[in-house]
Amino acid sequence: MEGEVHNMTRKQSVKEGVMTGLPIMFGYLPIAITYGVLANQIGMSMGEIVFMSVAVYAGASQFMAVNMIALGTGALEIILATFVLNFRHFILNLSILNTWRPLNLKWKIPLSLGVTDETFAVASMNKERAKEAHAGMFYTALLLVAYVSWVVGSFIGVLLGEVIPPALSQSMGIALYAMFIALLIPSVKKERRVGLIAIVAMFIHFICIQLGMSTGWAIIMGTIFGAGLGIVLFPREEASV
Amino acid sequence: MIFLLIIGMSLVTLLPRLIPVFILEKLEFKPWVNRWLQAIPYAALGALIFPGILSVEPDRPYFGLIGGLVAVLLAWIGINIVLVVIGAIATVFLLTIFIPM
Q1: Residue A166 in contact with residue A194, Cβ under 8 Å?
Q2: Where are the domains of chain B?
């Protein structure tokens, strides 16, 4: 009897993780398909295209790599640019893993590899789940929905990319931004200082770009220093997550 | 050749994702560090939204801006996140149709 109840809640956690991850799927599929189409156009093979999505799993850097491969850039330069663009995950993972402290190491190692801008944002806005009994199940389901969408989307892109009308796939570019906005707004409604942190981070990113910094570094600067405002703005008493 | 390149890209992406796991196993943070880490999601969302949203349609940056404002409006009235995304896509799609280059 007890085992049955245990199973039910576990199943429930997985189901809710999948449901929470669905918006990411909507955002990822069109973008992954676009990646598949572009990579196919510059002559990468199906195997290479899908392998990059499986092994790198970082959208912006994959688009950048396709671009650089097409231009005939050297491998070392592409790898260095990938490192710079993706280093923000280091900061994001410090933050999310701090909320995942209740989870066992066997969950945290695979979960850390599935953190992207999008899964980070959605998981962070559901951080109270980390204290639940089957938190590992919930977050793994959430991150897997995103990962599978990304890989399958790249595959579909190679297969039938040309079928999608350009005007529509272009308009899909707004999808992830809209998702970020939809994740941010409820927190801003609850606490205005959260909105201030976000606006300062936008401003820092913008200034860094004006100063000639690359997008990768500009996002890192905006995130690190924008969040610095939280040290002053967030209440001291409830400091521990 | 491209496979080796992808493995290199994979390693430099994987390590920054993985290393924080072991840093956090070793360290307990001071309260101010915890407050900083708590603020990261909001700062990251801000830095990811703008100015990137201007490049949705690179030749007409206001397309992304209008799509974003529609998303803010829809999210503010509290509708489901999937509908917010669909609403923003529809907005940019209509702009592309009715305001050709």
Answers
A1: no
A2: 1-49, 52-101
Q: Which amino acid is at A222?
A: G
Say yes or no to pLDDT of A241 above 70.
no
Contact A175 B52 (CB under 8 A): no
Query: Searching chain B, which residue's CA lies closest to the CA of residue A19?
Result: B82
pLDDT in tens, B62-101: 999 999 999 999 999 999 888 998 899 999 999 999 998 7
Do the Cβ atoms of B37 and A240 come closer than 8 Å?
no
Report how many Cβ contacts below 8 Å link chain A to chain B.
287
Task: Check: CB of residue A83 under 8 Å from CB of residue B10.
Answer: no
Cβ neighbors of A95 (< 8 A, separation 6 or more) are A120, A124, B37, B38, B40, B41, B44
Q: Which of B3, B30, B35 is the best mutation test for A, with the most CBs of A within 10 A? A: B35
Q: What is the pLDDT of residues A201-235, one digit of tens each?
A: 999 999 999 999 988 889 989 999 999 999 999 98
Task: State the pLDDT confidence band at B51, using cuts at 50, 70 and 90.
Answer: very high
For B28, other C-beta atoms within 10 Å of its C-beta total 9
B85 CB near a chain A CB, below 8 Å? Answer: yes
Binding-face residues of B in 40-69 toward A, CB within 8 A: 40-53, 56-57, 64, 67-68
- ipTM reported for the complex, 2 dp: 0.93
Using the beta-carbon criterion (under 8 Å), do B9 and A197 form an inter-chain contact?
no
Share of chain B above pLDDT 90, in %: 82
Helix segments in A105-233, DSSP class H: 105-113, 117-124, 135-160, 166-171, 175-190, 192-210, 215-233
